[in-house]
Amino acid sequence: MSANSAAFDHVQAFRWRQGDPALAASEARLYDLAALRSELEEAVEIAVADARADGTTWSSIGDALGVTQQAVVARYGRGGGLE
């Protein structure tokens, strides 16, 4: 099993709003995914700040996140308020 498929399995297993009688199953799933996305983005922001504090280059961070150096600097650098 790859890391990606293991992560997807965890996402699929996450149930916070599913089963809420006030929501359709598809709507509850969207609430669950939005909650996960928010927490994951915060975790990435912290990891980027930690990596920069450890001297990791923007290029290496971009490689790890699957984006260009320019994209990672724009999102998490001076424009993102982490530097």
Radius of gyration: 16 Å
Helical fraction? 55-70%
Overall geometry:
elongated
Oligomer: single chain
Strand content: under 5%
Structural class of the secondary structure composition?
Answer: mainly alpha
Which H/E pattern describes the elements?
A: HHHH
For the terminal residues, how far apart are their CA atoms?
A: 37 Å
The gist of it:
The protein contains four helices and no strands. It is mostly helical and 83 residues long. The radius of gyration is 16 Å and the shape is elongated.
Question: How is this structure best described in words?
Answer:
The protein is mainly alpha-helical and 83 residues long. It has helices at residues 3-13, 25-53, 58-65, 69-76. Helix 3 crosses helix 4. The longest helix is centred in the middle third of the chain and has 29 residues, at 25-53. The mean pLDDT is 89.
